[in-house]
Amino acid sequence: MKLNTFKIAFLILVSLFISCSPKKQSKENKKEYTDIQLLDLIQKQTFNYFWEGAEPNSGLARERIHMDDLYPTSPKNTVTTGGSGFGLMAILIGIERGYITREQALKRYTRIVNFLEKADRFHGAWPHWIDGGTGTVIPFSQKDNGGDLVETAFLIQGLITVSEYFKDGNNQEKLLVEKINTLWNEVEWDWYTKNGKDVLYWHWSPKYGWEMNFPVGGYNECLIMYVLAASSPTHPINKSVYEKGWAKNGEIISKDSLYNEALVLNYYEHDETPVGPLFWAHYSYLGLNPNGLKDQYADYWKLTQNQAKIHYKYAVDNPNKFKGYGEDLWGLTSSYSMKGYAGHRPGEDLGVISPTAALSSFPYTPKESMKMLKNLYKNHDSLIGKYGPYDAFSLEHNWYLPRYLAIDQGPIPVMIENYRTGLFWKLFMQNKDVRNGLDKLGFTY
Q1: Rounded to the nearest 5 degrees, what angle is found at the Cα of 175, between the Cα atoms of 171 and 177?
Q2: Which of 290, 274, 293 is nearest to 282 (CA)?
Q3: 3-state percent helix, strand, coil for the chain, nearest multiple of 5
Q4: CB contact set of 96 (below 8 Å; sequence gap of 6+)
Q5: What DSSP element (H or E) covers 228?
Q6: What's the CA gap between 385 and 388, in Å, rounded?
Q7: Proportion of the chain above pLDDT 90, given as a percent
Q8: Of the candidates 324, 281, 371, which has an alpha carbon nearest to the alpha carbon of residue 38?
Q9: CB-based burial of residue 168 (10 Å sphere; 0-12 exposed, 13-18 middle, 19+ buried)?
Q10: What is the radius of gyration, based on Cα positions, of the chain?
Q11: Which residues of the chain, if any, have pLDDT below 70?
């Protein structure tokens, strides 16, 4: 996959640069929080990105929110399909934690689903970006103006979770579930095998066809796409698509390790750096529970937990001697940077920490993630805003931006809730279609 995996990294225009200095909180203003208070606080702040910060017409997640009010690459009404899937799950936290009522959430979900029914779709798949006012596609790049199956998978993951939450509810809630099931059934996963090849393709455009030419295979953030494609009751893929396309006839298996932690699967085919950005351990596993999940290729708990441990150990080792790196400041993933959007990971490290990396890893590294959380809120209040920690910062370069990305904020409250209660893992994994798909692919769970 190499750099292609970071589709967003090389397609989004370079962000306007603003140099801000991360400042430590003064002792006089320093507030002490208990661990539970900190978890409550950050969950509420990040939930509000998707509640108060939502695009008003569609109810979906804005692709980005810049507190400096500069939108260099997309208009304010741009909503993100995948980030909205994460946001759908975050809204459930609002109900469970008492931020909003069940009735308020139902009203928002109904607005969202009604919008998604009418929005542009391409063989059932939504585009990466949608105009929240009109429902029409906003091209992610010139030829990326059609269906995006990966972003659609992240959205469907959220929709299925919501449907499980409301399926035994009142008549209005059951109507919502029916609408969600219709959307789920209308995604033509099998179409995206490009005329029956044994691999799923990321994109299709009515104007450019398959010219993006991005078959998705080898380990990355896209496991959920293959699981859902196999789970579809209406347009499923064959098991061979998973085995030959995703797993590459077993070549996906890795025997290597880093910092004495087994990699389990190959992160890159032609790359000297063996581990990926940490969002790979998050996006597919917001609903898909890696704890106890196994197939012929991997123990997925070992895979995801080890990736988080490797990132933590890398920061403690700090081979580049970047300022601040250590046991309470760690985590690299794709995010903003001084050079625009970049795919940060060990081996491609600009000295930029992305809070979502460590904070969304709470289920895997609870002690290490808590150290990061405490450090941020106790010592670096300038890096915290209305919707939680800003997207990225660098103590080494004395830089941060007061900006948020939906795809980075969304996994934080969801994975913290999975750590605290397992809510989303329980909901998603009880879905009968998902279980059928996992069985079909040979998973145990």
Answers
A1: 115
A2: 290
A3: 45, 10, 45
A4: 417, 421, 423
A5: helix 223-231
A6: 5
A7: 88
A8: 371
A9: exposed
A10: 20
A11: 1-21, 23-30, 71-73, 269-272
